[in-house]
Amino acid sequence: MKILVCISVVSDTTSKITLDSSNTRINSEGLTYIVGPYDDYALSRAIEIKEQTQAELVVLHVGTADSEALIRKCLALGADSAVRIDSSAIDSYQVAQEIIQYAQDKSFDLIMMGKEAIDYNSGIVHALVAHGLGYNHFSPVMHLDFDAGKLTLEIETDLGKSKVSSTLPAVLGCQEPIAEWKIPSMRGIMTARTKEITVIAPTKVNFESQISAQVIETERLQKMIPVENAESLIDMLKSENLI
Asked: What domains sit in the chain, N to C, each tagged with a CATH number?
């Protein structure tokens, strides 16, 4: 069995966040970075499955060289090897395409990642990867049992919780309480120094980039419509040429 865990590298929640000069991206100066907390849950459960099944566990990250210390931490926790695709993470589509290009000929049985990264919170990378590879897809997964090639999952839905079963291969977006976060042991830290981090050049992926995104607060209409006059909302929208 082969498991791929995809991790994001995000700013620590205690960091003060500011925007750069373009006003569209986070200013990285002075920030402390961590592995995405939801990805930590995915990795922790994947390590447990690896210990249960003797599976091969690979960690994948789309990012630059300054993320390798955090990748090395994943190796110290119990991953067998790691891959870094040498490209900044630009958007969800680009990240998903890089994962797809890497994984499509590797025959991974299970691909796990957090339900979302905590910086932009798009929460769609796992769905895009599953679609691109033709794998089963579930998110957010709160509980995962693995037995004889079959997954038994507890997922969060709009109505609460649901239990489902699935065959492999599958892509899962994970969240607590799927596993408890793990702390690397001294032996794991020493062993991680000799484990391989393979660096791969990014593919040439066509993606859309954001041109601008502005909300001018002073130009908002800020009109309140009483519930009993809700039908007048349509007339108002028409008069303001909004529909």
From this structure: 2-211 (3.40.50.620)
Give the pLDDT score at 206: 59
**How do residues 114-140 score in pLDDT, each as one tens digit?**
999 988 788 999 999 999 999 999 999
Q: Is 9 exposed, middle or buried (0-12, 13-18, 19+ CB in 10 A)?
A: buried
**Whole-number average pLDDT of the chain:** 88
Cα dihedral across residues 234, 237, 241, 243: positive or negative: negative
Q: Edge-to-edge strand order for the sheet containing 170-174?
A: 160-167, 150-157, 136-147, 170-174, 110-114, 2-7, 56-63, 81-86, 197-200
- The model scores a pTM over 0.85: no
The mean per-residue pLDDT over the stretch 47-73 comes to 94
For the record, the structure tokens of 150 come out as: 């079959």
